[in-house]
């Protein structure tokens, strides 16, 4: 019975690696990379559920009776586009942050912000 | 054309956004965007009337039947939300032209208006749709434009705030995506109505529980429910004033809507509240949120921060009403959605006016403004009173219903704590009032003039609405009641 | 494996490369799982565009990651809880590949059995994407458009008055060194563009469609820009042209929907576009795929040009 789910478990493992990068790492670009991995693993999860044993790609052809489920494919096409859009925007932000703060490390930015905050209080 | 209103609501601002690029002059684009917002406002009023008189509207996109195609489904709840978003969007936009002059370089104005319209589109899309995956797509439209809008803030901290929001928001959206995937796997459908029917068969499975958990956590990230609120204060504080006024009044409301929609319509009350311990969890989180955020607000020195934390606290009130899980409780939440949108947009817009005149919203800079900008400061005072929940303002109405609901459900301790939470609001509002009215103007600063009328008009429309709906509650209560009763399946 | 390597590696360049490989691997995984359309997209996006953008970004932000200081214990805890929740959720799932899972029984059969009669396109993914769930796709185009505007609002520079003409000659020389590359790519670029067009219009029958075509098209232009210099590329393809195209793509898509409104159908109902429903479906799908391709290609190019333009501006700033 366990074997029937192994595919999902691998996906979960990948997701968690990506998720871990996002929260544990301080480098802004690395966080975005983590986010990409996290999202891509979710995509794999969707595609896995659309798969059918001995099915073929969902393009109608003669002599094929079993197709994979096309709906998850459509959803993931959309989600991939959304993912790249987010990544692009995030990278643009990272570039601007680098220009404004001279760093893309989370804690250095926080220290600088703390300084500005203190200055404005005086 | 009347039958097509649901789609026009979404598609008009969507098409207007690229059209902005063809109009080059900032003022022209502003007028155009204002026109579009006004149109969507009229659309949402017409939709609300239609729903109230003849029940739920269903609109099939592409002409395909529901579980195969995507459908729009507008009931009282959606119509109310659409009305809130479009009205606030229009009124706030009115002041945009003036406010942007000081806060944004001229060549970015067109982009700003496109993003604003896209953000509006995203929110309309989330609210109007009856398809869970479509929710995800439009959620991303509204969030991406939200990140970009926040990053337009003058301060470099706006960039950092937008980045944090982007990371948190994307995690939230991905969680929602996982939740949708799990649901789809168990039922084979994405349509909300269809999901509700088919989930009834499998609602005891662990996969559905997991789906529920992921959707709720994802939505709560967007909602900024304590303790997932960390992105919110800075995002609100450093965004351009107009953006703050707009997002504060609408974005969290949309998330609350999603929460209500998922728990009540998709999963059903039985699963959400009887099988899982959601009720107590949310009441506790709501209460802790109210106290933690209000206390934080008392110690902040940036007035935008103060009101941002107060927003988190107000989310707490909404969550309590929702978690009580009675028709009255939900009604209190819906009323508070409406009322809080009115208060916060007025308050943040007034702060925008202060920003316009003195270029800062530090509390210390507010000294003496009570006399120099009397109309703006009066608006802040009335908005603040409404936030506290003083009678004759809208804040009182929603708190009143919330108390009724807690007492009805026999939760006395919660009622007392809610009242105590309001007292904390008195403290932070008083700090602003004290500085503005009872301290002498800052030495060495030129006398500050009153804000221009393009600010005052929208601010006072909102303030008067605060008072009007606080006295004449027929309209708002009627709609909120109808919406909550239809969610509970009670026929009035 | 790759994912773990990414966690450990500090050099961001290597990380980006590994991400590209990860994208390629997942693309091949998609092929194994019969999702050819998705694989195509993931290959061009995951391994192509996103890697490219990340590279452009790290040239501006620096390559190395600072060593970690804070304790990742809390993060690990959160991740473990989430992962545990997911594993818990999988326990009641239908098994991988089983045919009687609800996914295969409820909505999908209609797509598989009837889409030929209803839409008339052999590629089921295309017919679902562009017809049954066309509104999602419109949303997707809007997302990409939003990202384009967002990047523009963040990175766009004020119009330059060409003060850098002097050091342009130096740059010319740099590009001249890669003469072999330039000759080959001159021959390649038209082929890539042609291939993009093929993918664009062939989406009805095989894997492909507006989005993939847009990305490939963008890749060709970006290749040109990388080899011949951004300024040259901008001279050939002006940025404002692409802004216009991006807007037109989205408008084209949405107006197909509006036209069907005027023809008496619901929004995006292609049946009313022509006398014969199938012809209407074909026309509708063709037009919206064109819109998708248009917007995607132009937005990708806008994003890349802005990243690259920002970098050159930075370098010029540093030299002075």
Automatic annotation (TrEMBL), chain A:
Please indicate which superkingdom the organism of origin belongs to: Bacteria
Entry-linked Gene3D superfamilies: 1.10.287.3510
Kindly name one Pfam family recorded for this protein: Oxidored_q2
Indicate where this protein resides in the cell: Cell membrane
The protein's predominant localisation is membrane
Listed InterPro entries: CPA3_antiporter_subunitC (IPR050601), NUOK/Mnh_C1-like (IPR039428)
Kindly give the membrane topology term recorded for this protein.
Answer: Multi-pass membrane protein
Keywords assigned: Cell membrane, Membrane, Transmembrane, Transmembrane helix
Report the transmembrane regions from the record.
6-25, 32-52, 72-95
Family statement: Belongs to the CPA3 antiporters (TC 2.A.63) subunit C family.
Protein name stated in the entry: Na+/H+ antiporter subunit C
Species name:
Shewanella schlegeliana
Automatic annotation (TrEMBL), chain B:
Tell me yes or no: is Nucleotide-binding among this UniProt entry's keywords: no
Q: What single Pfam family name could you report for this chain, choosing any that match?
A: Proton_antipo_M
Q: Which UniProt keywords apply?
A: Cell membrane, Membrane, Transmembrane, Transmembrane helix
Localization annotation = Cell membrane; Membrane
Write out the transmembrane intervals: 6-23, 30-59, 79-98, 110-129, 165-187, 207-225, 237-260, 280-299, 306-325, 337-356, 377-398, 410-430, 451-471
Superkingdom is: Bacteria
The residue stretches assigned to a coiled coil in this entry are none
* UniProt membrane topology term: Multi-pass membrane protein
Q: Which residues form the NADH:quinone oxidoreductase/Mrp antiporter transmembrane domain?
A: 130-424
Q: Provide the family line.
A: Belongs to the CPA3 antiporters (TC 2.A.63) subunit D family.
This chain belongs to the protein called: Monovalent cation/H+ antiporter subunit D family protein
Q: What is the source species? A: Shewanella schlegeliana
